[in-house]
Amino acid sequence: MKILICDPFDPSLPGKLARFGEVTDDPAQLAQADVALVRSKTVCTADWMAGAPNLKLIIRGGVGLDNVDRAAAKERGIEVRNTPEASSVAVAELAMALMIALPNQLIAGHNGMREGKFLKKELKRTELFQKTLGLWGVGRIGTEVARRAAAFGMTVLAYDPFVKSHECAKLVALDTLLAQADYISLHTPLTDDTRGMVNAASLAKMKKGVRIINTGRGKCIDEPALAAALASGHVAGYGTDVWYSDPPDPACPLLQAPNVIRLPHIGASTKENLLRIGVGVEALIGEFAGRKGR
Q: How do residues 118-127 score in pLDDT, each as one tens digit?
C-alpha cells in the first residue's frame, strides 16, 4: 500500500503508518497512491482524482469534507473518511479566544502599546458574563463552545435543524436566536443551505451591536453584506479563522472592514489536535487495511 500525505500532519505520523506500506509526501507520486491524507489545503476535485487511478481511500484529517468532491469519489469507487471527533476542543477553544478578544479590545490594546500609545481611556471593554450566546449549529464543536460559555456565565441558545434536544443549550428558532443573541458563533458545515447564510437578510434580524464568531466555514458568510454591517456599526465585531480560500483573495472586503480579528485558519492546528488527528488516521488506515487483507 502506498500512502500519500498531501498536507501537514504531526511529524510522527509517517513513522506510525510505515507498518501499512510506503509513506510519502511527494505529490508526484499521486498516480501510484492507494491512500491520500489531506487536511484543508488540498482540494480533491474530480480532475485531481483522475490523476490518481490507484486511489481507494481519501482521509480528511479534520471535520469538514467540503474540499472533497464526494460525488466524484463515489463514482470512482474511492472511500472518503474523516476524523470529526479530533478537532472539537481545539476549534472550540479558538472560538472562545475570539469571543474574549473582541469585547476586551485585546488586539487594539496590544497594537497601541507597540505603537507607543497608552489607550487606557480610549478602549472600553464589555463582559461575557450574563450575555447571550447564539450557536448557529450545535454539533461536536458547538457543544464544546456551549460548555465553555456556560462557565463564563453566559445564556446559551442554539439553532440546529438536525438536533432535537441538547444538554448544554436551549434550542430555539433561528429568528429567535438572531434577535436575542449578543454573540453568534457559527458551527455549520458548508452546504447549499448554509452557503451565504449570514447575509443582508439575516444580519438585519440581529441585535445592533452583535458580535459574530466564525470558526466554521468562510463561505457561510456573504462578505460584502457583513462588511457593510461592520462599517455601519450594526455588527460591533467579527472574529474569523476561515475564509473563502486559503489565503483569502486580497480583494476580500473583510480584510479592510473595521472591528475584525483575522486569523489564518489555525483552528485545528494545535499540537494536541494534530496528535489526535494522527491517532484517528492510523485507526482508519488500519481498518481499511484489515478489510482489504493488506
A: 999 999 999 9
